Amino acid sequence: MSGAGKPDFFYREAQRLGYVARSAFKLLQIQKQYKLIIPGSSVLDLGCAPGAWLQVACQSLGPIKNGGLVVGIDLKKVKVPAMHCDSRVQTLCADVMKLPKTSVRELSPQKGFSVILSDMCPLVSGIASKDAALSLELGMQALDLAVGEAALANPNNVTQVEESLVGATTSSDVNGVLKRGGHLVIKLLESEDVQDFNRICKPLFRKASLLRPKATRSSSREIYLICQGLQSQART
């Protein structure tokens, strides 16, 4: 069954394996294909409710002796799931887009994150163009949080996206929280603007590609932008 909200294979597997949501399998596929999270990684999970990606991220760190941490931020208060998580996982109830980048950076002992996951999604209205625009706005904000004014320094930027990023950046806090060589995953809703967004990211990262995970429901327009290896010239 593929209708939204109906139990299907991934829903049943999530229940069987102790994941709090079927969305765990989206990150599991991303991790299997791209191996973004390695032992010792510092991971920031934006829009972390209900916690399935926290579980997969923590699992991907390996045994606790390997170190690393996972910080989840959401507008909702999220309890760290008991299964697949350990003391390296913490959550914060806040609007990450209203937090100064300096405050977000300080959440990691490494003063930044090696992987940023954004599974944020707007409250959908059912109007495709409106929902896609809201999704793109969240994606832009996640990109700005990750790389700061680096995106603005790219001469290939699309004007509309550049203007949005200007609005999201403040002169007193211009540096992103993603470390050099780090990876960024952003969920978007498919639209003609997604390719423009992809073109913005490509010069900033070693590689940028789009993926529609197998666990995505057939009725969903979700697609993930996988950005690998933040280039050193993208940071100040």
TrEMBL record:
Locate the transmembrane regions by residue number.
none
Superkingdom field? Eukaryota
Q: Pfam families, from UniProt?
A: FtsJ
What Gene3D superfamilies does the record tag this protein with? Vaccinia Virus protein VP39
Keywords, alphabetical: Methyltransferase, rRNA processing, S-adenosyl-L-methionine, Transferase
| All residue ranges annotated as the Ribosomal RNA methyltransferase FtsJ domain in the record | 19-229
* Keyword Metal-binding in annotation: no
Keyword set includes Cytoplasm = no
Q: Which GO terms describe its molecular function?
A: rRNA (uridine-2'-O-)-methyltransferase activity
Q: Which residues does UniProt mark as catalytic?
A: 187 (proton acceptor)
- Please name the HAMAP family in this protein's record: RNA_methyltr_E (MF_01547)
Q: Sorted alphabetically, which PANTHER family does this protein's record hold?
A: RIBOSOMAL RNA METHYLTRANSFERASE, RRNA METHYLTRANSFERASE 2, MITOCHONDRIAL
The family classification in the record reads: Belongs to the class I-like SAM-binding methyltransferase superfamily. RNA methyltransferase RlmE family.
Q: List the protein's name.
A: rRNA methyltransferase 2, mitochondrial
